[in-house]
Structures are given as C-alpha cells and as structure tokens.
Design goal:
The protein is built from eight helices and seven strands. The protein is an alpha/beta fold and 274 residues long. The relative contact order is 0.14.
C-alpha cells in the first residue's frame, strides 16, 4: 500500500520521499514510478521506525535539505509477529507501528506547520485498522509484558494511532496551525502483512482473499483521498473508511485517555511535552 500511495501521489505531480527500511524494495519502487512517467518525482531514504535513533537521523537529514512538507503519510506497519522488541526495548508492534510514527510526526511538526497555509493546509495521514475496534489500551502495560498476544499487541498499536490522531488535531486546532490530521482504515487488503498467519490460516486465507480482500491499490485509495482530495482541505480529526468519515471506537473519543497516552508517549520517546 505504501508503494501504491507513493505512486499515486507522484502521478499528481508531488515530490515523494519514500522512507523505509528495505533499501532494495525502496529503490525498485522509485525506479518503477519514474519508468511510468509520473509528473512528480520519487526518491528513497532509509528509515527504520523500530529505532528512535534512525527516526531522529532521518528527520535531521530531511530538515537539512530545507524542503517543505505538505503531506506526511504514516503507512508503515507490522502485524501478528511473534513477541519481539525494538532496538529501544519496546514491544515491536507498539514500538514500530505507534511510537516510531509518534516521534516522526512530532519531529516533523514544525516543518509541516511552516509548509501549510490557510486555505492549503499541510496534512498528516495515519494508517490505522478496523482491528482497533477490538483493541484495548493497557496504560499500565503498553509493552504487553504481563501477557503477550500478537493480535492484542497489533490491535493496541492501531488503537493508539487513533487516540494520537485525535489529540494531535486538538493541539493543532488550539494553536491555529494550518495542519490537519486524520486516521485512515484501508479495509482488508491482500498484502504481506498476513504472512505471519499460521500455515492453516494462510491456506484458508488464499481463496477468501481473492474474493473479499482489496488489492493494495484499493487499500491505498482512502489514504490518497485524505492526502490529496480537495474536499478534505482543512478537515481533520476524523477516522476515514471507504473515503467516508466514520465513527471509530467509542473509547477513542475519551480526551482524558488521549492526553494520558500522549504524555506517556512523550516520556517513552524522550520528547519534552509542550
């Protein structure tokens, strides 16, 4: 989906920076986009969201170029992996899917604020999932150390991203900044994320996927809509599914939990809470 999103945004004339930890795949994506003759341009820059050091280094390099940033798409993610930790000791789903994007977005916020204008806001698009509806945010055990479940850890990370999006939008609105933030649900998409299913589940998934799952291009469509559609100008703080504003889980609208998660996240990644 990341490739399809980058491909579409480049076709609209944007300069797209593909950030990821698989250099060969990233360079191949850039080559393919250029071969298709897009009006925009694409490039690859290494970024490992499972490493806070890598996130900071990426931001440092990006800012050194003096480029504007009109759209940030937080698309990367892992799903249902066995219990593992990031370079910083965080549970992998929470660390990569959530904390990596939390730090990246916050470190790029000043550039987004400077790049947006009234009438043409900069946009933050964050990929969540319908699994957030069944997720539980364990504020006293965000790293899933008491009892690990790959599905529970994944669902919590996607739930945290919705909390983050809503609280971020409140802060942006309160400050009068020309930046919007929305969470996106791509639906069930046939991607490599499902490679971590057990063998019987993968075998059962294959015929179902052909009938019911979306293609990566279809899955990317709502992210592209949030990133580029004129009707989304100035619109933030929403959960989008099928290009429509949709109600997320009831708990995600709890502002106390939003604030607590934000504060704890700042502490975990070493950010001063403004």
């Amino acid at each position: 989906m990341g490739f399809e999103t980058a491909r579409h945004l480049a076709s609209l004339g944007m300069h797209v920076v593909i950030a990821g930890n698989e250099e060969d795949e990233g360079l191949a994506a850039v080559k393919k986009i250029h071969e298709e003759g897009s009006d925009g341009k694409a490039e690859f820059v290494f970024l490992d969201l499972a490493s806070l050091k890598s996130v900071r280094l990426f931001v440092q390099k990006f800012k050194a170029r003096g480029l504007p940033l009109h759209v940030l798409v937080n698309n990367a993610g892992i799903m249902l992996v066995p219990e593992r930790k990031t370079a910083d000791g965080f549970e992998l789903h929470f660390g990569l899917n959530y904390l990596g994007h939390f730090l990246l977005t916050n470190l790029l916020l000043d550039t987004l604020k400077k790049s947006g204008t009234q009438g043409r806001c900069a946009r933050i698009v964050t990929m969540s999932s319908a699994t957030h509806y069944g997720g539980v945010l364990h504020m006293d055990d965000l790293q899933s150390r008491a009892c690990y479940s790959s599905h529970g850890a994944y669902s919590q990370s996607k739930l945290a991203l919705v909390f983050f999006t809503y609280y971020l939008q409140e802060r942006l609105t309160a400050g009068g900044f020309p930046v919007t933030a929305n969470a996106v649900d791509p639906g069930m998409v046939d991607t490599a994320l499902y490679d971590n299913l057990c063998s019987p589940a993968q075998a059962a998934k294959k015929p179902v996927a052909k009938l019911l799952f979306r293609t990566p291009a279809e899955g990317a469509s709502t992210a592209v809509y949030a990133a580029a559609a004129s009707e989304m100008e100035g619109v933030g703080g929403w959960y989008l599914y099928n290009g429509q504003k949709t109600q997320s889980a009831d708990v995600t609208y709890n502002t106390d939990i939003q604030a607590k998660l934000w504060k704890q996240s700042c502490k975990l990644v070493g950010l001063q809470e403004a």
